[in-house]
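Please go through the protein record below and explain what the tokens say about the fold. Record follows.
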Amino acid sequence: MGSDGNEGERTRKERKRAKKERKEKQRKEREERIFNKYAIMDPSEVMAQQVRKQNIASLPEKAAKRMRRVGHRISGEVSRKKNQKGKKSDDGEDAGEAQPFASVPESAYPGSGGNPKNKLRNDSDLEGASDGEMAGFVEARDDLYDYYSDSSEFDSEDEPEKTHFFSSSLSVERRKVFMKFLLSNLLIGAFCISVLSIYWGGMYRYQHYMGRVKAIAVIQEDPSVQVAGNFTMHSVAWDLPDFIAKSNATWKVYNSTEFKIIYNVTNQDEINAKIVELVYDEKIWMALNIKENATAALYNSYMVEGAPAFNSTKYYQAVYMSGRDPANFNAQMLPQLQIVEKLYRNYFTMDYLPRFLDNMTNVLDLNSINSTNLAASGKMFFDYYDFRPFYNRMLLNPLQTGLIYCVLLTVFQISMFGSLHAKMAKLLTVRHMIIYRFLISWTTYFVLSLFFCTVSAIFQIDFTYSFGSPGFVIYWMTTWLFMIAIGGCNENVISLLAPYYPSLISYWMNTWNIINVAAAFYPFALNDVFYRYGYAMPLHNAMDIFRVIFLDLSRHKLGRNYGILAAWVGVNSALFPFVIRAAGRMAQKKQAEMDKERDKERRIRLRVIRKH
């Protein structure tokens, strides 16, 4: 048993040693292939081979000139010394040996009029060169190696041997993969918890904030109404405030006298107009207007021959604007008004109307009541007056969802012109680079905004609803201003992230989108005060302007909206020169690090070549 175990141990050690020797042999063979292909003494031949293989039209002029100059000098000097020693041969050395400065096509010598006339025949010709001449030759050769050190032709010969993922030779790489996987997922998780929570929080516990929804009720009829001479009874709206109080919204109830004093109106028509004006100016979200003579109309429908049946919609009017918030008003705020209507309908049918009829029969003949109108009077409904309705579902695209894509479009010009900007940065002064970037970005936004607005026109959205025929131009110019405002911020941040942290650009884009959307898509009345930062966000102000254009809402906020967008443009423009300079320094630092790393790699490769 012991002998078998020792034998097995020796076998394992031998296999391990053989595997190690095989890998060492493969490494040496790989280095030998590199040496044989690239470490020849004639850099011009390497150049010619690379030109033929890679179809390169020209090489760096500086390196080419230096190689031609050094090659001619060494060739001439060595030939002169050999002539003095009488060692020159008419037919040269063995033609089968390597010929370092062999004839090279003209494409290998960019800018030269043809091939060099004087050529070294073989490696031994270099033995007569002086130290200075050899130093110049090596310098030219190193320039060539530096040019090709990053070529796929060179790297393909030095690729590591492929193996399975759990190989012992990949322990360092596996550790890097694991750490990258762990950090990336932690970053994504932190993004979800922190940034996405802002969006989810915009709708969290909205019922808790329903008390911030302001509404008014104006009861123009007196609490007690005298009908049929000395016959007096409670008005129809006598108990309405009790049911209004059961709504979660914050209501303020006025009688006609209070309302006239506070809002400086004198008659019923002015009261009705003022209520609509308060809703239109967005002082309140909704209003309930109970007009005068409702109780008299109910009484007359029973007792006056030929009188029409009582129609509650003529005296109970609910005023609101669904266009103020197309996505949220009908779903979250209007139900508060409908709750009042439902509760009051039950009260009117089951309580008020029977008592009203009982009081009438005590003083009047029951047979004189109009039975037809009696049946119709049991229906209690409000007249819902949507002063600025959300009349077309297609408007959700330019008013809400489409604005997300408008934000994303601003990144297109950054990605499309990124490589061009990098090239122009090497050619232009800082001042002219700033002017160039402004000109490119603003002009691009101008074109993009036109195409963005044209999509709405293609689907026949009405631009004349508020401003008439100039509506499309106003919409286009507003979109352009919005793109400049939000795109300028994108360009500043991305310019700083790109040199060192390009992977964070996607995080920035999603964060910028979410903090804009969360503060624009949900009404401030129904979320936490934290979201009031949205008053300063470009998307919220652009959405307010677009609602005026498409739904003819009140224009009292347009000055603030356009002012905030212009402020974003001004701040981003003022910061851009500093961002350009900072980004340039970061890019130079990054390039220096990359050059240093390439130089280190080149030196390692040259060390391997010279070692042979």
